């Protein structure tokens, strides 16, 4: 994943969680279930607008093989993110 290489980051995976970190902090993470439902997604405010959320969601889609769905409640930022991924989701 070129984003990880460019930002000198590491991607870790646990059961239902992808976490993107650099040597100092967590850049973002996503928690999901096997149905492709995103339970929670977070991107550190210092690293927003760098497509980190989209990269994490693509990992979820690739892992589950399902369309991404956000669980309720969906925040205003979550709603905005859903609109941006409609093309490839």
Can you give a write-up of this model?
The chain has 89 residues and is α+β, with helices and mostly antiparallel strands. It has one domain (2-85): Gcn5-related N-acetyltransferase (GNAT) (Aminopeptidase). The chain is 31% helix and 29% strand. The chain has helices at residues 2-6, 52-64, 76-85, and strands at residues 10-14, 17-21, 26-32, 37-43, 69-70. Strands 1-2-3-4-5 form a five-stranded mixed sheet, covered by helices on one side. Strand 1 (10-14) and strand 2 (17-21) form a beta hairpin. The model has no long low-confidence stretch (mean pLDDT 88).
What is the chain-wise order of helices and strands?
HEEEEHEH
Question: What would CATH call the homologous superfamily?
Answer: Gcn5-related N-acetyltransferase (GNAT)
| Shape by Cα distribution | globular
Classify the fold: give the CATH topology.
Answer: Aminopeptidase
Overall structural class, as computed from helix and strand content, comes to: alpha+beta
Task: Provide the β-strand percentage band.
Answer: 25-35%
- Cross-sheet strand order for the largest sheet: 1-2-3-4-5
Computed CA radius of gyration, to the nearest angstrom = 12 Å
The CATH class name reads: Alpha Beta
Helices, by number, come to 3
The overall number of domains is 1
What's the architecture in CATH terms? 3-Layer(aba) Sandwich
Uncertain parts: none
Total E-strand runs: 5
Question: Would you tell me the overall average pLDDT?
Answer: 88
Largest sheet: 5 strands, mixed
Give the distance, in angstroms, between the N- and C-terminal Cα atoms.
18 Å
């Amino acid at each position: 994943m070129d984003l990880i290489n460019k930002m000198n980051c590491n991607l870790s995976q646990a059961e239902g969680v992808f976490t993107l970190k650099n040597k100092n902090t967590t850049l973002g993470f996503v928690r999901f279930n096997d149905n492709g439902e995103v339970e929670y997604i977070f991107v550190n405010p210092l690293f927003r607008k760098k497509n980190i959320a989209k990269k994490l969601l693509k990992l979820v889609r690739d892992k589950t093989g399902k369309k991404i769905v956000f669980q309720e409640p969906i925040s205003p930022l979550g709603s905005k993110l859903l609109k941006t991924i409609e093309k490839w989701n």
